[in-house]
Design goal:
This protein is mainly alpha-helical. The protein has a domain of 38 residues.
Length: 169
Amino acid sequence: MNRIVIGALGALLLVAAGIFWWQGRAASDAPQGPHLALATPKAGASDEPLPESDAGDATGPDLPGVPEATKEQKRFDRLDRNHDNKITMSEMLAHKARAFRKLDVDGNNLLTFDEWSVKAINKFKAADKNGSGYLTRDEFAATKAKPRKPSCKCNAKPKPEPDEATPEQ
């Protein structure tokens, strides 16, 4: 038992010594500061003094900083409709109520399965060209989502114009 305890303490001491040695070595290998070369005047350089100017009260452009309102503050302000710095339950659910009203076609404040799944039902009906009530493989293939085009054209590459000297293949 004593051998195990002594062995564990010895291993811990070796690890601690290694860490101190590694940290000391890393600190001594770090550069001690910028090494600047002194500029020497070139032969033929004029001995005119540099122009001096007084900035006076002039100020430079403002540095870009953190926007005044963070994302969370903007989100809070968007939900707080009456701007009383309190979000009520009705304010929190207002945007969901608009989406609910769009789905509730008959206006009875109850969503049936057909009202809730209206997009899927309309997609099925549009794909079922022959009105059979089921989709064949070809009809199902027509429901594949179309690839979206990027909304910004910042990364779009211009199409190269065909070279008139080379025949088209």
